[in-house]
Amino acid sequence: MAYKYESNKSVTPIDNALIEKLKKSRNKWALIFLVLVCLAYIVPYTMLTNVPKVYGAFLFWWVYIAAVVVCILTIIKDWRD
After folding, report:
1. Which residue has the higher pLDDT, 9 or 50?
2. Is the dihedral of CA 24, 27, 15, 77 positive or negative?
3. How many domains does the chain divide into?
4. What is the pLDDT averaged over residues 37-43?
5. Which residues cross the membrane (predicted)?
6. Which domain holds residue 62?
7. Is 1 among the domain residues?
8. How far is CA 11 from CA 7, 14, 19, 35, 56, in A?
9. pLDDT at 36
10. How far apart are CA 33 and CA 46, in angstroms?
11. E strand or H helix at 76, and its extent?
């Protein structure tokens, strides 16, 4: 179903509040994903370099993947058509 955009529609104060809430949420999630991306580079090359067993790295990656999946599911849970 296609939506028609009305350019002359005025924005109500409720819409402004919602827009501000969404901007804050977007900034929060952008920061969280920036931290996750940095961890994906920092942890394996610093903290896991001296781990003699491979399962230490696998444990990190499983926890990392779980964290990313939880973040993505939290973001998309309220999406609608």
Report:
1. 50
2. negative
3. 1
4. 92
5. 29-48, 54-76
6. 13-76
7. no
8. 10, 8, 10, 34, 53
9. 94
10. 20
11. helix 54-76
Say if 30 falls within a structural domain: yes
Backbone angles phi, psi at 7, to 5 degrees: -75, -20
Alpha carbon distance 23, 31 (integer Å): 12
What is the maximal distance between C-alpha atoms in the chain? 65
State the Cα–Cα distance between residues 30 and 26, nearest whole angstrom. 6
CA distance 25 to 19: 10
Check pLDDT > 60 for residue 45: yes
| pLDDT over threshold 70, residue 29 | yes
What is the C-alpha separation between 2 and 4, in angstroms, rounded? 7
Classify residue 35: in a domain, yes or no.
yes
Is 54 a residue whose pLDDT tops 70?
yes
Other CB atoms within 10 A of residue 28 CB: 10
Q: Would residue 21 count as lying in a domain?
A: yes
